[in-house]
Write a structure and sequence with these properties.
ten-stranded antiparallel β-sheet, mainly beta, Porin, 209 residues
């Protein structure tokens, strides 16, 4: 059973995120603990983001059969990712990300997905808060027991970040990810094609440089 390995991976990502936030906080003197107003971004500004949270299977469309149950139990899994972002101006940004997510099936097996792709987005600022909107896409290697599949993904999301200091901001994210599976086996026909849809609710620590 693969649950212990999946939980250990998520805990390791949590520890890395906590350590990064702690190091950033130690750089501040006591008289500097105050709200930080976000300055306008300029071309060349960059961020590095650590994200952790939960993923919820929503609906799965099986071609030839219609909507079917997702067969995940419990109906919630874990996810984590690392992302790099480069700003081309005050609002528009572009970057890359790599992540991992896992869910448990009713048979107590684990399915892993590793989305790797490019991301782009636009944001606006309101006081010390930032509201980015992103779209990402790329490949998504998947593993279930002894079955492997190289698929792809497309994700749209919205976030709210609080700029804690010039170097650090913390936020919450919601996103919707589409995982289309198109197995290519002779004679199977389109009935093996599945469109999976996942809802993510995650938290992020973001380093600005």
């Amino acid at each position: 059973m693969q649950k212990p390995r999946a939980i250990a991976l998520l805990l390791a990502l949590c520890w890395l995120s906590f350590q990064a936030a702690s190091l950033g906080a130690q750089e501040w003197d006591e008289d500097e603990w105050d709200f930080y107003r976000v300055d306008t971004y300029a071309r060349g500004d960059q961020t590095f983001t650590i994200t952790l949270g939960l993923v919820f299977p929503t609906f799965f469309y099986h071609h030839g059969y219609g909507l079917r149950s997702h067969n995940f139990s419990p109906p919630v899994g874990g996810a984590g990712s690392l992302a790099y972002t480069y700003f081309f101006g005050p609002s528009f940004f572009f970057g890359a990300e790599i992540g991992v997510s896992f869910n448990y099936t009713v048979a107590e097996n684990t399915i892993f997905m590793i989305p790797i792709g490019l991301r782009a987005g636009w944001k606006f600022v309101l006081g010390s808060f930032e509201f980015p909107f992103t779209i990402a896409g790329g490949i998504a290697p998947q593993r279930y027991m002894d079955f492997s599949y190289l698929g792809w993904f497309l994700r749209g999301g919205a976030s709210m970040f609080f700029r804690f200091s010039p170097e650090w901001s913390f936020g919450v994210n919601t996103d919707w990810t589409w995982y289309p599976q198109r197995p290519r086996r002779r004679g199977d026909g389109p009935s093996r094609n599945v469109d999976g849809n996942m809802l993510g609710v995650t938290f992020s620590a973001r380093y600005h440089f």
